[in-house]
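hey can u run this one w/ iron/sulfur cluster bound, need the structure tokens asap thx
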Amino acid sequence: MPRGSNTRQPARSGRQEGVPHNLPSSSLRPKSRASSDQKTSDRKTKVAAVVSKAAKGYNPLAPGRIAEILKRLDELYPDVTCALTHTSAWELLVATILSAQSTDVNVNRVTPELFRKYPTVEAFAALTPEQLEPDVRSTGFFRNKSKSVVGAAKKIVADFGGQVPLEMEDLLTLPGVARKTANVVLGSWFKKAEGVVVDTHVHRISRRLELTTNNDPQKIEQDLMRIIPREKWILFSHQIIWHGRKLCIARKPKCVDCPLENLCHAADKTWSTVEMHKNAKA
Ligand code: SF4
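ok here u go:
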């Protein structure tokens, strides 16, 4: 199987189906033997134009293509959930704040002892950020994270009766909480689909799959909310995050093992049966 790009063209559906075979027969049928070289040349130009038009007609957001991607993700990752260990909305909020620029494995190493030491949101609210720093140091960026966690705890106690709010606009008033963290808590704990979690995996893979051309997480989220059915928002995020961990890793994605391979035209694929698109990259 050849590696890299080949001569096949993507169809309108977004699926790789080979060179278009719906060219007008008149454009392919030989003319009389008396045709001049000029006529032959004209015909070649015409065929090339039709092929080129078909290639340009590729729409990465075609509903059929999106539906096929979602179907394959469902088959690959039918029951995935959030990998951060937690037993309450507060614990999930803290774990998500700590997961920035870190790994879930790393965070899960820290949080059991952290929640044993400070079992309630009030216990966190009674701390200074400096007191929390040693407990979260190994997750990286520990000064900012300590400020965010303690600040969020104080605000939840002061303004929300000690309960993590379940409205997006309220969550966004908490220190250190942006839409990604709010979407994790709303989706995974409260089962409310208010948006799509855009973390580093969703960012990278959405671009590779040409579901967005944006780089800004909020714009990526808006793009995904437009093309993914709302009832899929929560599961889709989990599926893409798992796909990013298992196969579509940042460096050297495992394309040869990927069930999405023939739907994916990413520029940085490591193996391909379809044309690769230079702008489809992380
Ligand atoms: S084919 Fe490769 S780049 Fe595309 S989604 Fe799969 S692993 Fe990622």
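The chain has a mean pLDDT of 86. anyway lmk if its weird
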